[in-house]
Write a structure and sequence with these properties.
single chain, 182 residues, two-stranded antiparallel sheet, two-stranded antiparallel ribbon, 9 helices, 66% helix, elongated
Length: 182
């Protein structure tokens, strides 16, 4: 069959036409997801709603003070008059993941811009995880269709657009990745 014809090798792995087709469709799925999720940038490159600003402030606290200080941080600027124990009453994994990735990939960018882009990146990467999970359950073709459907699924896109620095995009990514790895 022509789709199984060897094109080239990388180490011991032999690429065939169907491997390139899978890579192409997954690239298309990732790109479509990223472009749709980035569309609100036409109206401004900023965080949306109120919660993303708190999540940004908590991530900034980790970047400035470190992780041990975050777990003992009692925020006096919220929940007046008593304040808030941030580590036990918020999405700690969102803050920790964003601060860690900013340290690794932030480069010369500011944290504010990094947190604006982060939901688009994780939302788009989830399309790849959806492919992997559905491929195990229903095969490669089903995985590719699921990835493309995820990329254009309106209810999921609405909760993961640019500037939506909340827990949904990261939670979907981590949740589906955990199910796949399980």
């Amino acid at each position: 069959m022509i789709s199984n014809k060897k094109l080239f090798s990388v180490g011991n792995f032999e690429f065939s036409l169907h491997h390139l087709l899978i890579i192409g469709i997954l690239s298309l799925s990732f790109s479509i997801s990223a472009l749709i999720r980035s569309q609100p940038a036409d109206y401004g490159f900023q965080l949306n709603e109120f919660d993303p600003f708190f999540n940004y402030r908590a991530t900034q606290f980790i970047v400035d003070n470190g992780l041990p200080a975050y777990f003992s941080w009692h925020d006096d600027m919220s929940w007046h008059p008593h304040g808030r124990d941030v580590a036990s009453t918020s999405q700690a994994m969102l803050h920790i993941t964003a601060a860690t990735l900013y340290g690794a990939f932030g480069g010369g960018s500011d944290l504010y811009g990094f947190t604006i882009i982060l939901p688009v990146v994780f939302g788009s990467l989830t399309a790849i995880v959806v492919f992997a999970l559905v491929r195990v359950i229903g095969g490669t073709t089903a995985g590719l269709f699921a990835s493309l459907l995820y990329a254009v699924s309106l209810p999921i896109i609405v909760r993961g657009t640019i500037g939506w620095f909340k827990s949904e995009p990261l939670g979907l990514f981590y949740g589906l990745l955990a199910v796949y790895l399980f």
